[in-house]
Amino acid sequence: MSEPVREVPAVEVRDLVMKYGSVTAVNGLNLTVEPGTVTAILGPNGAGKTTTIETCEGFRRPQSGSVRVLGLDPIADAHQLRPRVGVMLQSGGAWSGSRAYEMLRHIASLHAHPLDVDLLIERLGMQSYGRTPYRRLSGGQQQRLSLAMAIVGRPELVFLDEPTAGLDPQARRSTWELISELRSSGVTVVLTTHFMDEAEALADVVHIVDEGQVIASGTPQELAASGAQNTVRFTARPGIDVESLMLALPDDVKVDEVSPGSYVIAGHVDPALLATFTAWCATHGVLTESVLVERQTLEDRFLELTGKALR
Ligand SMILES: Nc1ncnc2c1ncn2[C@@H]1O[C@H](COP(=O)(O)OP(=O)(O)OP(=O)(O)O)[C@@H](O)[C@H]1O
């Protein structure tokens, strides 16, 4: 019997090390991006996200380790990769005197099957500044143009470095929609972001990067669920028998009276646990005044793993 053909990963980074003088920016980083997915690289400032992405884009040569993009070497095979990969840099990327329509038409002309420039400009709400020189655009407008430049060639894979940094909420939302559309049309998207909600809303897979390494990977839900336990906070009369309640609940669940009449149940919280809890209350004549189930978010997990806030 023949082996099933394994699809070439869109991006494969192995043991990447990158230094700037004595600063180690990337410290043995491993990352695989499956084709057709949206992958978010999430990390605090200085974690090594941009350096990693720039190495994948072929702007930096790996000092140690290896990088493959669509199965190719980003530097040696740059010529082959250029028409297949779109790149949105964190800043700039356009000539200061050029205008959005000009830039996009120029890039489109270099590709075999580009997107329709007028439609793209309209889709990104860029009509009002499509003929303004790049240097006179606001930061957010430049950002939109960079995104348009990354995708106008209809790439198989796009790298977006902080695609919504500095955008107003409406522009951010329409960028999200565009990224979802790219994914629906089969484009692989690799983005870096500081925004937890962005990773949660868009990404199939999130890699949390800290100090130059991937320290956790998974779907946003898996990452949130893999961390500290969830809690149920409730209030009731002070001094209820927490030992008895704990005996009724699964072994790994803890119950504390954190202040008189205020209780916390910590553990794996699921509907069965809540049912057992309320049944115990009924049997013991305990009337709860408020019950609040707190689920851990990706943000909680991130803080727990890195000890850092994102900004
Ligand atoms: N050109 C450079 N010269 C010297 N050090 C650099 C250079 N670029 C980045 N660094 C350092 O390398 C480390 C990683 O930087 P990098 O920009 O890759 O991180 P990042 O995760 O993208 O950060 P941010 O979220 O702030 O953009 C940081 O300590 C940074 O100061």
UniProtKB/TrEMBL annotation:
Topology in membrane: Peripheral membrane protein
Gene Ontology MF: a single term: ATP binding
Keyword ATP-binding on entry: yes
Keyword annotations from UniProtKB, A to Z: Antibiotic resistance, ATP-binding, Nucleotide-binding, Transport
Ranges of residues in domain ABC transporter: 11-236
Pfam families in alphabetical order: ABC_tran (PF00005)
Places the protein is found: Cell membrane
Principal location listed in the UniProt entry: membrane
Annotated protein name in UniProt: ABC-2 type transport system ATP-binding protein
Organism: Aeromicrobium panaciterrae
